[in-house]
Amino acid sequence: MATQKPLVGVYPGTFDPITKGHLDIIRRATRMTDRLVIGVAVNAGKGPLFSVDERVAMVRAQVDEHLASVADSIAVEPFSHLLMDFVCDMGATLIVRGLRAVSDFEYEFQMAGMNAYLNAHVETVFLMASDRYQLIASRLVKEIAKHGGDVSAFVPPAVAEALKTRYGMGRQRPPAGEPNGD
Ligand code: ADP
After folding, report:
1. Alpha-carbon gap, residue 115 to 8, rounded angstroms
2. Which residues surround ligand 1 with Cβ inside 6 Å?
3. 72 alpha carbon to ligand 1 midpoint, in Å?
4. SS3 state of residue 45
5. CB proximity list for 44: less than 8 A, separation 6 or greater
6. Which of 6, 10, 78, 152 is most buried when burial is the number of CB atoms within 10 A of its CB?
7. Mean pLDDT, residues 94-119 taken together
8. Which residues, at least 6 apart from 129, have a Cβ–Cβ distance to it below 8 Å?
């Protein structure tokens, strides 16, 4: 009897930064795959807050910390070329995307259709995060963090810290009497 080839999936995204919603999708995706590659898109067009190297390192660290039992079956790789080429390079036959509200649907529907046209041997599957994580979006997390709001419900602690530092909120206030640059 022929042995089954391991099922490799790619979960592509910008992950700027990784949220609890992403982690929930990653956890679910590992239940459906033998190996999962998280593809971190360079995505310069979106003007990411964190560099691709920072995002890859953040995703790796969060996966190792929060999904330790499956971390060995997860790879985190940057990519800047066509998603379908990346998927083939990784030996994957499955693309995993997350769906939040109806608003995600049209874009995801179009992308899945185009990707099916590019390579009919690769399927796209959509997963939903559990309801407490469904409304989380990296864009809104950044907006809240930028204004000094508390994002701890949406991202892991290390990511909340990285956001604070990036927005200059993590610095010590200068001693009384010194100008603070505000
Ligand atoms: P992209 O720029 O490709 O949209 P994102 O990092 O924003 O990259 O999202 C990557 C994938 O994760 C997308 O399929 C997106 O719909 C999904 N996703 C992001 N946040 C959530 C969430 N809270 N619940 C479910 N899916 C999510």
Report:
1. 17
2. 13-15, 19, 21-22, 25, 97-98, 100, 104, 129, 133-134, 136-138
3. 22
4. helix
5. none
6. 10
7. 92
8. 21, 24, 25, 28, 98, 100, 136
Which of 40, 97, 131, 134 is the best mutation target for the ligand 1 pocket, counting ligand atoms within 8 Å of the beta carbon and taking the most?
97
The tens digit of pLDDT for each residue in 61-87 reads 999 999 999 999 999 999 999 999 999
Instruction: Indicate if 5 belongs to the active site.
Output: no
Q: How far is the CA of 175 from the centre of ligand 1 (A)?
A: 42
Gap from CA of 148 to ligand 1 centroid (Å): 23
* For residues 141-160, average pLDDT: 97
In the structure, what pLDDT confidence band is assigned to residue 1 with cuts at 50, 70 and 90?
low
Q: Which residues pair with 123 in a beta bridge?
A: 94
Q: Which residues contact 79 (CB under 8 A, 6 or more apart)?
A: 12, 39, 40, 41, 42, 86
User: d(Cα 127, Cα 26) in Å, to the nearest integer?
Assistant: 9
- The pLDDT of residue 170 is 61
DSSP character for 68?
Answer: G
Q: Given the residues 100, 146, 164, 166, select the one marked as catalytic.
A: 100
Q: In 3D, which of 27, 13, 15 has the Cα closest to residue 65? A: 27
Amino acid residing at 139: R
80 catalytic? Reply is no
Structurally, what CATH architecture does the domain formed by 8-134 represent?
3-Layer(aba) Sandwich (3.40)
